[in-house]
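Narrative summary of target 7.
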Amino acid sequence: MNTYPEPGENKDVLNKVLLWVVRLFLSCLIIVGCIFLGVYAFKIGYNYVTDPDSFDKPDDIPQAVEVEIAKGASTKDIAEILKEKKLIKYPLLFRVVSRIKQNDGKYQQGVHLLDTSMDYDAIMAELKKTVAKKEVKRFTIPEGYEFKQIVEKLSTEKLIDKEKFIALAEMGDFEYSFLKDLPERKPRLEGYLFPETYEVYADATEEDILRKMLEQFEKEFKQEYLERAEELGMTVDEVITLASIIEREARLQEERPLISAVFHNRLKSKEYPLLQSCATVQYILGERKEVLSEEDTKIQSPYNTYLNPGLPPGPIASPGRESIYAALYPADVSYLFFVAKSDGSHIFSNTYEEHQIAQKKAQQE
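Modeled conformation, tokenized:
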């Protein structure tokens, strides 16, 4: 009888031993982790129970903080807001204590005035109070509005002091990542005050209103767009600059990707490196002309894309969602030219000869 192991038996035994060792190691790791987390949670809970008055308080001077609780906000939502406002450090503990004290569902919507010296009990007590409803005002920023038009509209609607708003827009310290590497130019925030309908409290400051629009831009320009811009070899500022030109050139939604494609193709073309966008010249002129004169196209300005190759130094307006998307995802076509028709639509062409024919056709309509 053969008493030697069959070929492969030793390997199977070794595999089983290794698998057992790995399982043992992972089990030990999980147990140690659970013990560590348990001790940490116990320490936090113990500190809260034994000294609730001093728990989670900052050492610096108390700061007043406004906290807005939306209608239907859950305790989890509220805990995250409180952490963001630096009023608490441990959202999970806030949720646990809220449940223990049967405060879930008792927090009132509205704007609550808290301060950084408050402990959890004081915060919970304040959030359960009914607050008077504040007057809300609504305003709309249309797509394609320039910074100066936005200022004028908000000023006319008595939402801002014009001089304060402009000074803050130029010199304000805003921490948004998309503003960090902007080149020196005025208006600094051109293109970044997102076109949308907003609601603000009647006592909102110029900074509140600016931040509202900048925060909306941050929400709109999501991670997918950042990754796509990198794929295209473009900065966020270049994407918004291109999107603003598309916004001012396009009348029809379905043409935005085609107009975008023309400009993308021009940016890569050695034969036709000039964008020759009427919208950029209108930005210099400060008015929208139906037809530009030859003299208009010769104005000396870095924004004149009839004279300067590539993109202008910055956006010429606030582009909407569709134009931003079109700037990032142009149509897969080889067009290099387009001409506007009387109804606002465009004729697109691949060659200059085709473009000349299209121009004559557009003029006859």
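DSSP finds 13 helices and six strands in the chain.
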